[in-house]
Amino acid sequence: MADDAVVNGLCLTSVRSPFDGPVYRIERTGSTMEDAKRFADEGAPDGTVIVADYQERGRGRFAERLWVSEAGESLLFTIFFRYNDFSHIPEALTLRTGLAVSEAVDGFIKPEKTAVKWPNDVMAGKKKLAGILTEGVSNTVFIGVGVNVFQRHFPANQGTGRMNAASIALVKPEPEVPEGASGFGAEDQVAARDATRFLLLEKILAELDGELNTESRVFAWRERLEKRLFMRGREVVFAPGGRGTENMVRGVVKGIGGGGELLVQTASGEETFISGEIRL
Asked: 232: which residues sit within 8 A by CB, 6+ positions away?
């Protein structure tokens, strides 16, 4: 493989994954999404996971929305799956990944509970705790996930001066940690933080496997997602085209359509959106 970060990737045999692929750890990389694409090109099996301690070019849905964190503070990974054709890709895959992340994170911050913000974020209150980025190349789908774990300081939201992100450490100062790890104040803090991040990775992979392969969950994903849907039943301002949109829509979030569309009740009736974002 051409990229040195990929060549130096360490296979984490201690991280349990329900998928067939291995889990590789990279200390520093440009983007786990790009690394995963190279792994896929080289024939790595479905379910291969690339997790990084630090990303230089982590991004969100839009290029200018960068994922900013210090090394070891976030859980940053990409997993990929190949499908025979487009019709075999699970519907609403990004949202259902968000559901898996939300359920996994809840185990670390209980009794607090996260919500899924359409189309690709996980929220703690009204602050972003995690994000999902899904990209398709030919018959392969790459799912990138970033979870704020240990960060305590974030850039202020431009124009408001408010911090618009949260982390597990801010929501729950002493989250669940694996046996043998003594938590945030451990003498070997790096090892304890790694153990916590990789435990969270295991939990997310297990939840994602359930979302995609457990029949009862597959058939009930909309109902389960709507119970966690951010701002459901409340009035919002919605930007149909996302960034740069001037024509805002005001209405009440009603639910999710069969393909993952957002349903909003406006003055003109129920409208369906396949792109855009809720403005906070």
From this structure: 226, 253, 254, 255
Domain endpoint, select from 186, 206, 225 = 225
Q: Domain of residue 216: give its range.
A: 4-225
Number of residues assigned to the chain: 280
Q: What is the mean pLDDT of each run of 10 residues along the chain (280 residues)?
A: 49 90 94 95 96 78 55 94 92 97 95 95 96 94 96 68 81 65 56 90 97 95 97 95 73 96 96 91
DSSP state of 203: H
* Cα torsion angle, 110, 111, 117, 123, sign: negative
- Which domain CATH number covers 59? 3.30.930.10
Q: For residues 146 and 131, give the distance between their C-alpha atoms in angstroms, rounded to a whole number.
A: 5
Q: Is 245 helix (H, G, I), strand (E, B) or coil?
A: coil
* H/E run at residue 99: helix 93-109
What pLDDT score does 69 carry? Answer: 65
Contacts by 4-10, CB closer than 8 A, 24 or more apart? 5/29, 5/30, 5/35, 6/35, 6/38, 6/39, 6/50, 9/35, 9/50
Residues 238 and 213 in one domain: no
